[in-house]
Amino acid sequence: MVRQQNASWPTGSQSSANAGRTADNRSNGSGNGYSSGDGYRNDYGSSSERNVPGQFDYYALVLSWSPTYCAEKGEDDDAQCNRRDGRRYSFVLHGLWPQYESGYPSDCRLSRRPFVPENVITSMLDVMPNRGLVIHEYRTHGTCSGLDPARYFTTAHRLFDSINIPQRFRNPFESQLVAPSDIRREFLQANPNFKPDMIAVVCSGADKGLKEVRLCVSKDGQPRTCGQNENQSKLCSTDRVFIPPTRSAASQDSPGRRSPPADTGPASTGQQSPLPGPRMDYDYGRRAQ
């Protein structure tokens, strides 16, 4: 078990965390609509070894499917779901979570308050389009990484940028029903450095909507086998996952009608930005029928 934080992957310095105007992290991130973890207990040696900054086994890079979040919890999230410029998101970065092989640390105690500098928050808004989420993620997860906010978020952004998003998730116009195994297969095809036991699909809600894709990496940013937290049978055991679109197809249908979800198989892959441009015509408060 690796105990020391590998400093070769993150960039920046400890002192950079104090640069610029800081945001008050006494906010608990409430109102961002996101939650973390899945109720696993912390099984990491003795109690004195748990929730200690830098003492964990691997990271889970968590990609959130924004249309599902906006439909289920994002009614009041103007930054992500109700933008005045009409921009809609597909996959966004939920977070970079230190994990134990079983369980996970959270809210680790630091010698300083977990302030996130304003310039660091701003640097993350292209992939984490909610200021409260950025602050919440550092308080809950970043404090356990052993990194200051600048290095932690530099690492998270770089890892997110390194992931190729499969073709079907590049601004889909139609809702889809897809097997979790097909989602994993397409991510593996687009990212051949990962193996099947390094990725998990998370679904939620009565209609089993796509919530997240988690990719497991080592402390130095290399793909590695996931632990028990990413047990696929616990995170999403359904045969088909509902994927709401980033853009409605209503304009292509008869008035008052929407296309039914397409039950689709594997799609072709390639590389493109996971963040689409302005999309004006999808009501995130409703599901496509």
UniProtKB/TrEMBL annotation:
Q: What is this protein called?
A: Ribonuclease T2
Compositionally biased residues, Polar residues:
1-19
Domain of life of the organism encoding this protein: Bacteria
Recorded GO molecular functions are: ribonuclease T2 activity; RNA binding
Return any one Pfam family short name: Ribonuclease_T2
Region labeled Disordered — which residues?
A: 1-47, 240-289
Q: Where is the composition biased (Basic and acidic residues)?
A: 280-289
One Gene Ontology term of the biological-process aspect is: RNA catabolic process
Protein family according to the UniProt entry: Belongs to the RNase T2 family.
Q: Per its UniProt record, what Gene3D superfamilies does this chain match?
A: Ribonuclease T2-like
